[in-house]
């Protein structure tokens, strides 16, 4: 039985996320940080606008890492040997992840620093 086109596309996209989390070390790390941020959000009952910021940071980092993986795999297929253009492409893709990760750290400090300090009473 063939799935309708729209459902098949959804299944392929979901498979892409699951494979990336299973096989890519950096994606595992991002997933662990995302899970920790979600748990902390619930534990500290952060306000809705702060929770939206946390969700935005998670979305940006995860989607940048998925695109980074896609670019890495495509470059490896097209250019298994060393090549300056392959290096440029991979470095730029990694740079995109770094930019989003810096944003996520800033969001993490902005949202969680105050509740953590209150909890520790410092
Ligand atoms: N074909 C290539 N030609 C030139 N430089 C490359 C090539 N492949 C990788 N590099 C260099 O090595 C770096 C790391 O590439 P690699 O594909 O190992 O990614 P990675 O960040 O280690 O990802 P992962 O840990 O997810 O595999 C790139 O950013 C690039 O500078």
Automatic annotation (TrEMBL):
Pfam families: DAGK_prokar. It is an enzyme of class 2 (transferase). Its EC number is 2.7.1.-. Gene3D superfamilies: 1.10.287.3610. The chain crosses the membrane at residues 29-46, 92-113. GO terms for molecular function: kinase activity. Keywords: ATP-binding, Cell membrane, Kinase, Lipid biosynthesis, Lipid metabolism, Membrane, Nucleotide-binding, Phospholipid biosynthesis, Phospholipid metabolism, Transferase, Transmembrane, Transmembrane helix. The keyword Transmembrane applies. It comes from the Bacteria. It is found in: Cell membrane. It is a multi-pass membrane protein. InterPro entries: DAGK, DAGK_sf, UDPK. Its main location: membrane. CDD domains: UDPK_IM_like. Belongs to the bacterial diacylglycerol kinase family. This is Diacylglycerol kinase family protein.
